[in-house]
Amino acid sequence: MAKVNLMGMNLGEIEELVSSLGERPFRARQLMKWIYEKGAESFAQMTDLSKELRERLDEVSYLDRMRLVKRADSRLDQAAKLLFELEDGKKVETVLIRESGRRTICLSTQVGCPLGCRFCATGKIGLRRNLKAGEIVDQVVEVERLSGEKPTNLVLMGMGEPLLNYEEVLKSLNIFNSSYGLGMGARKMILSTAGLVPQIERLAKEKIKIGLAISLNATTDRLRDWLMPINRKYPLREVLRAAKRFTQIRKRRITFEYLLIAGVNDSFDDATRLAKLVKGIPCKINLIPYNPIANIKFKRPDPQRVELFKRWLYPLTPTVTLRESKGRDIGAACGQLRALY
Question: 4-62 architecture in CATH?
């Protein structure tokens, strides 16, 4: 009988396992704490479990931990990028962002990405595979173990489109949220999507009330079709309709992310159209200046243009923020993750 990997198991699954070993359900809660909160790497470390139980667990299960391949620390800010190798040899990148009292971990949900957005390095490598829930969760466990810093916020904005890996992502979110997992409040977690309408509508009805960010990046279907091919399947009108329904169901505003690319989508007309598109949707707009990527000819707008776009937009919309991506010098900023070394 093949051993089962405990990483990524939820409380119900671990309860079923310990029950099969003749143990009482509370042992599952102990195991959850060791796996996710304490980051145990072996059963030998689980000292409040009997030696007999640890030996039996070792016979039927194992803990698959990611292996750190490389770490890069930014000289510009306090960001760190970690390259992890998975059980099958494939690799993903995770980013730790430090700012004031916050410690945010930017998580990957796929090895690569199939969407092929023109401005994104991850999309250039295509999709290798989806991550399992355990691999998504282990990014947080390993970053905390390696850095000694407990995360305050989680953002699913790394490699991949989270809503294309819906079941495993949802399972990982529930483990993050569980008091027997990482105990992370749902409002401290944000999922970013390119705009997959059916999945947005499904997510709105889930019990876990995480935040939603939608990458718009264009104000016309013609431009968004070119920048983000997924728009041909789910055009702006449908994405915005789903966004509004999400806010109505959740009673919580969402975030629209808008990547500013010099000479492409940073004009006065773009700002005016953007304000009209989001009118009537409880939201905030995050402006993100483009981060340079090798072999992609887009350019970052100069700071004056960015500030001008913000001033054009702000009187027309309630909340506009400028998000300066961290770790640009180490390829850790928005759109730069590639996991290729």
Answer: Orthogonal Bundle (1.10)
